[in-house]
């Protein structure tokens, strides 16, 4: 039963993530966090971090990870098959139509319209990750107990390294992690 | 060339690329192109461009879609099956291992601080991607596209509209617009 739910959830993720890579994020969030509660926002953030550091698409990585966490290897298989099944059908069908008719204008016109919507939804998924990172309660309020300055500083430094100095994203992320560990060691929180 | 050797090549190429390519689908598609167009000469350049367009405009992971089009072009349905297996086995194995270690190390305080720090980093990476993609939309100076971006954000963030509904609505808008344009083009001829 749980395997079938995993299959259905990732079938929808595979079917509606247009534009590759991060486009799957808002859909994973809607299914995995909001609908089924298989991961918390915190675990989802860790999953995206892990996906950035390993080869493989975010959607497939998420399917395998979530499936494993929820129902072991059978769960991972169910979720991963669900995730790639729409691709297999849709892309094969399109490739077949293309070999016959050689016209893709409708498809490309649709994708042009979809791209801005996808950007907007990725932005929203990004906020879901950033808000609880900056504000302890998950609500935007600058009260001293709620607002965390260290993650904000790390974020700003990471943005500068990524955009101004064009550093590799994986290196920037690892560096952020190492800074936090160093800080915890210095302040004695980690013993 | 023998069919079985084509199939073998398709499988091992996608397996290899999927194991060693960091940096997302667009990178894999470029590597598939250099392998099958420039190195093996099994697909011609123009056709590959269209196949890549299919891979990029279909739903799902671009790396998987790219493998499917190449597999289909070279060896039909058996090619699709082997290309997909090649593309999916590496992330499946890697993430199964990661999932195992994640569960084992979740309580470790050093790992916890590392992951906490990395949250800011991954947030920055996503913000940077949104900036690049979003400025592309704004620079297109296409009011419909900018309108879709703003409306989709508001619908998603403030009104909590289901992402699938947003996507389906925008697909309808895109199809209507393309059909109107095609008809105008047809009328001009």
Tell me the quaternary state. Answer: heterodimer
| Total helical elements of chain A | 7
Major sheet of chain B: none
Termini separation of chain A (Å)?
A: 44 Å
Structural class by helix and strand composition of chain B: mainly alpha
Structural notes for this entry:
The complex is a heterodimer of chains A (about 190) and B (about 190). Chain A is mainly α. Chain A has a domain at about 1-105. Chain A contains seven helices and no strands. Chain A has helices spanning about 1-15, 25-35, 40-55, 60-100, 105-135, 150-165, 170-185. The model of chain A has no long low-confidence stretch (mean pLDDT about 90). Chain B is mostly helical. Chain B folds into two domains: about 5-105, no CATH class; about 140-190, no CATH class. Chain B is about 85% helix and about 0% strand. In chain B, helix 1 (about 5-20) packs antiparallel against helix 2 (about 25-40), helix 2 packs antiparallel against helix 3 and helix 3 (about 45-55) packs across helix 4. Classes of the chains: A mainly alpha (about 190), B mainly alpha (about 190). At the A-B interface, helix 1, helix 2, helix 3, helix 4 and helix 5 of A face helix 1, helix 3, helix 4, helix 5 and helix 6 of B.
What's this model, at a glance?
The complex is a heterodimer of chains A (191) and B (189). Chain A is built from seven helices and no strands. By secondary structure, chain A is an all-alpha fold.
Descriptive keywords:
heterodimer; A: 191 residues; mainly alpha; 7 helices; 0% strand; globular; B: 189 residues; 2 domains; 86% helix
């Amino acid at each position: 039963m749980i395997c079938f739910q995993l299959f259905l959830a990732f079938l929808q993720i595979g079917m509606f993530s247009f534009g590759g890579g991060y486009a799957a994020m808002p859909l994973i969030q809607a299914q995995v966090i909001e609908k089924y509660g298989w991961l918390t926002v915190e675990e989802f953030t860790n999953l995206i971090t892990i996906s950035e550091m390993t080869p493989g698409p975010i959607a497939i990585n998420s399917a395998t990870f979530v499936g494993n966490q929820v129902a072991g290897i059978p769960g991972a298989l169910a979720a991963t098959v669900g995730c790639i099944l729409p691709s297999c059908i849709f892309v094969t069908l399109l490739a077949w139509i293309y070999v016959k008719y050689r016209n893709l204008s409708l498809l490309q016109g649709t994708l042009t319209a979809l791209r801005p919507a996808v950007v907007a939804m990725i932005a929203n998924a990004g906020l879901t990750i950033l808000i609880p990172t900056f504000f302890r309660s998950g609500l935007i309020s600058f009260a001293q107990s709620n607002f965390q300055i260290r993650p904000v500083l790390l974020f700003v430094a990471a943005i500068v390294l990524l955009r101004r100095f064009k550093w590799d994203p994986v290196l920037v992320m690892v560096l952020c992690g190492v800074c936090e560990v160093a800080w915890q060691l210095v302040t004695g929180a980690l013993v | 060339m023998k069919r079985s050797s084509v199939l073998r090549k398709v499988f091992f190429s996608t397996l290899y690329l999927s194991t060693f390519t960091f940096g997302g689908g667009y990178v894999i598609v470029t590597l598939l192109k250099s392998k099958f167009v420039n190195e093996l000469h099994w697909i011609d350049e123009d056709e590959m461009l269209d196949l890549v367009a299919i891979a990029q405009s279909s739903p799902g992971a671009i790396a998987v879609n790219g493998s499917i089009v190449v597999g289909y072009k070279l060896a039909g349905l058996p090619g699709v099956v082997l290309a997909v297996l090649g593309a999916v086995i590496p992330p499946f194995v890697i993430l199964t291992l990661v999932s195992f270690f994640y569960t084992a190390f979740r309580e470790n305080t050093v790992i916890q601080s590392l992951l906490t720090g990395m949250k800011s980093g991954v947030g920055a990476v996503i913000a940077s991607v949104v900036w690049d993609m979003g400025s592309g939309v704004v620079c297109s100076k296409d009011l419909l596209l900018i309108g879709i971006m703003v409306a989709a954000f508001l619908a998603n963030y403030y009104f909590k509209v289901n992402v699938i509904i947003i996507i389906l609505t925008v697909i309808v808008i895109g199809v209507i617009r393309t059909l109107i344009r095609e008809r105008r083009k047809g009328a001009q001829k």
